[in-house]
Each structure stands twice: as C-alpha cells, then as structure tokens.
C-alpha cells in the first residue's frame, strides 16, 4: 500500500531551535507578535476553525477568489455545508453578533491556521497561519492611527528592512460603487485586450482589475479613473495625516490603485509588502469594514482590522539564536531515575531561565555526554551510584575547556543552578 503523505500545500512545522529554519522562526515570531498585541491592550479571541460555509460566502464575498475557487467546504453527516475558515475576521464578527456585543467596543487579537485552496508556490500555502487584530465599535479616526502604529511597532521590533506600507481610501459604499462604474465604463472599450481573468473580473469584481499582474492591463490602467477623484477630501486628508505622522518610523506610500481581495472593505485599506518576498510579496493586509456586521445580520458596527501572514513574515525576519542556557542531566543507571527526577524537579523550580534536559534513554556515559555536546549544552550534571551514596553530583562545564568538572553536594548544586 502506498505511504500516506501530507496534503499538497500543507506542511508539518517543527521547532529544531535553528533560527534559520522557517518553523523555528515562526514559533518565535508568534511569541513576539502576541506580546505586541498585548502591549496595545488587545484581548485574545479563539474561534472554531470550522464554520457554516454561508458565513464566508456572505462576508468575504461571492465574487472573491476565496469563495469562487479557494474555499475548503464540504457537507457534514447532516448535509450542512461547512467550511474551514479562510480568514479570521468573519468568525470574529459572527461571534460578536451571536453574543449581542455589537454596541460595545472591542480590541481583539487571534492567531491560528487558515485554509485556502490556492495553487501552492513559495509563500502561498493551502494551510497557513495568520495573526490578526480587530478594533470593533469605533468609527474612522483613532483606530486608523492605532493600526498603522501597531504595524510600525512590528516592523521596528523585528527590524525589517525593504518593506513598504501601502495605504489607500476606498471612500463610502456609494463612493466605491460610483468609482466601480466609472472603471467599468473606462475598461469596456478595451475588453478584448484584457486576458481571460481580467475579463471575468470586469464582469464580477471590477475593482480587482487594479490588482492585475498583466502588463497589458497595467498599461491600459495608466489612464484609468482614480479612486482619489471619487472620495471625500477628508479621506485624502486622513491618508496624508497618517503618512505625515508615521513616515519617520516606517516607509509609508499612498497608492490609489491598492485594492483588497476580500469584498467587505470600504474606507481605509492597507497592505505591507517586502521586496525580499518575490511574487507573493504582501505579508500583511487589512482595512475598514463598517458594513460587515449588519451584512451578517447584526447591528451596525464600525470595524477595522488586519492580519499578518506568518509564514511570509517569518521569511523576511532574521532572528538571533537567543536561546536559554541548556543543562543536561545525565543519569548513569536507570535505578537512580526516581531520585534524579526529584532533584531535577527542584532544579527546574529554582531557575526558570534554564532548559533542563534529563537523559531519558539507556546508554553509556560516553554516549550521553556526546549527546549533551551535540545539543550544545552549557553544563552536564552527572549522577551515578557513587555520587548518590555521597549525596553529591558532578558538574561538568561543556563550553569552557579551562574549567574542571567538580563534585558538589546536592545543596551546592541547587545554589549553583540558581545562580546560573
Ligand atoms: P488577506 O490579505 O487575505 O486578509 O490575508 C492577510 C495575509 O495573509 C496576507 O497578506 C498574506 O501574508 C497571508 N496569506 C493570505 N493567503 C495566504 C496563503 N495562501 N499562503 C500564505 N499566506 C497567505 C485577510 O485575511 C483579512 N482577514 C485581514 C483583515 C483583518 N482585514 C480586516 N481585519
């Protein structure tokens, strides 16, 4: 029988402690991003990964790529259409509506896997991880500044180079509709020159043509109407103000061609891209979505948010191996294990900054020492029959050849370990 393999575009992630390995970086990145969210006083929300498929059809939009061809959906045993979440925002809003919390304000963060049936390539997976934040219940103004501030904090914390935050304003629902109509009127005469994908977009979701990768479409678009002529002056003022306030911290660019792949946006939108990422260069995206809550059957609730693609983000950060000190506890014979575990238990409580690795397998002292060295341990603690009879252990420094190993009493071991 053929071996069972993981599914296309889905990867096993494991932490081998090497900060050049994508998954090790991913774990560290998750930790630090969470801390930043918490520093901004966001609270965690965890929603199920499986939802009613209609949630995404009604939120992300029936004309979006996600709903058209990327959604992982299937019927359960009761013939109910379910979907693996392709993003986090819709589930957060569903949860707020269900708990009748639309009339208060919330600052929420989440982190976890998402699923999209995309054509896998570098930086594009079918299962990937996002960390996101949503500010709910507050209209345009202060939350826009908080969003850009948090993005700048993340970029600065990881010392990212070569990245740009692109910002745009799609105006009100009515502004967006008038602009769409003007864009369609402009593009109709060029319809035959557009590729199949852009022709389809022209029919179903004209705004997305602005995102086209085709050079013919890009050249046609050079003279197309611009959203900036359809939105209020206050929208343009907001973009300029955000750029003015934060440009000394991060590279911010107003891009009137920036549109987003999900249908629920209106007003302020943004994306952060890195020139180090290749074709899939956007590592973060978001914007305002004031109509989503009422569209999903809730009360009106202004909202804004963003999500970071953690695999793409991890690709562009370089992290130092900031590991904790490692001590290997080597037990010479298995009959000593109960005593050794008790000593190790006490050691762990004395100093939480040290990783204590107790040797679990059988083997000679030599092979256990070899393993401790291979693991790059700083010290080995060795416990044999003789030591136990003397109520002592041997401490052997592994990184400093000039330092001798020494036998110490268990009490002295505790003092030594505490001071490490
Ligand atoms: P999104 O732009 O669809 O927005 O996704 C956010 C980020 O997730 C992207 O910038 C990208 O880094 C990453 N991403 C998307 N698809 C893939 C994939 N197939 N493989 C790897 N990474 C991927 C949202 O999901 C919105 N919910 C963001 C938001 C929150 N808007 C308001 N609140």
Structural class: alpha+beta
Shape: elongated
Which architecture name of the largest domain does CATH use? 2-Layer Sandwich
Strand order of the largest sheet: 1-5-6-11-10-9-7-8
Bound molecules: histidyl-adenosine monophosphate
Q: Could you provide a short overview of the structure?
A:
The protein is an alpha+beta fold.
Topology:
Layout: H1 22-39, E1 43-44, E2 50-52, H2 53-59, H3 65-70, E3 73-75, E4 81-84, H4 89-98, E5 106-115, E6 127-136, H5 142-157, E7 163-169, H6 173-187, H7 196-204, H8 215-221, H9 233-246, E8 252-254, E9 268-274, E10 282-288, H10 292-295, E11 303-309, H11 310-316, E12 325-331, H12 337-350, E13 354-358, H13 365-374, E14 379-383, H14 385-389, E15 392-397, E16 406-409, H15 410-419
Helix pairs in contact: 1-11, 12-15
This protein binds histidyl-adenosine monophosphate.
Histidyl-adenosine monophosphate binds at residues 87-89, 116, 118, 123-125, 128, 130, 132, 134, 261-262, 282-287, 289, 305-307, 309, 311-312.
Keywords:
420 residues, alpha+beta, BirA Bifunctional Protein, domain 2, Rossmann fold, 8-stranded mixed β-sheet, 5-stranded mixed β-sheet
Protein architecture, described:
The chain has helices at 22-39, 53-59, 65-70, 89-98, 142-157, 173-187, 196-204, 215-221, 233-246, 292-295, 310-316, 337-350, 365-374, 385-389, 410-419; strands at 43-44, 50-52, 73-75, 81-84, 106-115, 127-136, 163-169, 252-254, 268-274, 282-288, 303-309, 325-331, 354-358, 379-383, 392-397, 406-409. By secondary structure, it is an alpha+beta fold. The strands form 3 sheets. An 8-stranded mixed beta sheet has the order 1-5-6-11-10-9-7-8. The chain is elongated, with a radius of gyration of 28 Å. Strand 12, helix 12 and strand 13 (354-358) form a beta-alpha-beta unit. The longest helix has 18 residues, at 22-39. It has 15 helices and 16 strands. The mean pLDDT is 92. The protein has 2 domains: 22-172 and 231-316, Bira Bifunctional Protein, Domain 2 (BirA Bifunctional Protein, domain 2, 2-Layer Sandwich); 325-419, Rossmann fold. Histidyl-adenosine monophosphate is lined by residues 87-89, 116, 118, 123-125, 128, 130, 132, 134, 261-262, 282-287, 289, 305-307, 309, 311-312.
């Amino acid at each position: 029988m053929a071996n069972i393999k993981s599914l296309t575009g889905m990867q096993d992630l494991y932490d081998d402690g090497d900060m050049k390995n994508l998954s090790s970086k991913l774990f560290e990145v998750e930790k630090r991003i969470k801390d930043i969210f918490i520093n901004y006083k966001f609270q965690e929300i965890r929603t199920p990964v499986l939802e009613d498929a209609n949630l995404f059809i009604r939120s992300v939009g029936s004309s979006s790529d996600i709903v058209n061809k990327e959604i992982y959906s299937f019927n359960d045993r009761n013939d109910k259409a379910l979907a693996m979440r392709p993003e986090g925002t819709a589930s957060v809003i569903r949860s707020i509506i269900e708990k009748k919390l639309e009339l208060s304000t919330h600052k929420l963060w989440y982190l976890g896997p998402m699923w999209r049936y995309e054509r896998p390539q570098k930086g594009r997976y079918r299962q990937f991880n996002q960390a996101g934040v949503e500010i709910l219940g507050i209209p345009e103004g202060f939350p826009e500044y908080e969003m850009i501030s948090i993005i700048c904090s993340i970029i600065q914390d990881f010392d990212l180079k070569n990245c740009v935050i692109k910002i745009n304003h799609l105006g009100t629902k009515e502004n967006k509709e008038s602009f769409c109509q003007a864009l369609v009127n402009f593009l109709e005469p060029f319809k035959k020159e557009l590729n199949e994908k852009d022709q389809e977009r022209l029919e179903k979701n004209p705004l997305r043509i602005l995102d086209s990768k085709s050079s013919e479409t890009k050249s046609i678009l050079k003279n197309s109407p611009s959203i900036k002529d359809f939105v209020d002056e206050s929208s343009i003022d907001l973009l300029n103000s955000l750029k003015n306030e934060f440009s000394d911290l991060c590279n911010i660019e107003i891009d009137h061609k920036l549109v987003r792949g999900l249908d629920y946006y209106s007003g302020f939108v943004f994306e952060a891209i890195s020139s180090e990422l290749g074709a899939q260069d956007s590592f973060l995206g978001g914007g305002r979505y004031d109509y989503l809550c009422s569209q999903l059957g809730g009360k009106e609730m202004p909202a804004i948010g963003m999500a970071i693609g953690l695999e793409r983000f991890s690709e562009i950060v370089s992290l130092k191996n900031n590991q904790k000190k490692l001590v290997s506890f080597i037990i010479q014979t298995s009959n000593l294990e109960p005593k050794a575990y008790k000593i190790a238990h006490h050691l762990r409580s004395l100093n939480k900054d040290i990783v204590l690795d107790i040797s679990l397998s059988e083997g000679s002292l030599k092979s256990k020492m070899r393993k401790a060295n291979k693991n790059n341990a700083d010290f080995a603690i060795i416990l044999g029959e003789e030591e136990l009879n003397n109520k002592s252990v041997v401490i052997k420094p592994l990184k400093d050849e000039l330092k001798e190993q020494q036998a110490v009493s268990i009490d002295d071991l505790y003092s030594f370990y505490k001071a490490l």
